User: What shape does this take?
Amino acid sequence: MLLMIGTTEIIIIALIILLLFGGSQIPKLMKGIGKGVKSYKDGLNGIDDEEVDDKKKDRKDD
Assistant: This one.
C-alpha cells in the first residue's frame, strides 16, 4: 500500500509539512533528518567493521 504513493499524494504531504513547520523550519528539519540518516549508516558500518575484526581475530587464534 505504501508503494502506491503517487505524485498527488507526495504534493499533499509536502504541503501539510509546509503548513505544520513553516518555510523557515524545513531546512532545519531536513538537516536533522540527514544527520540522523548519516549517524545510522555510520553505526551500521561500525558493526560491519567489528564483525570483520572479530573474524580476523578468530582466524589468528586457529
About this structure: The chain has a mean pLDDT of 80. The radius of gyration is 20 Å. Residues 23-62 form one domain. The first helix runs from residue 7 to 21.
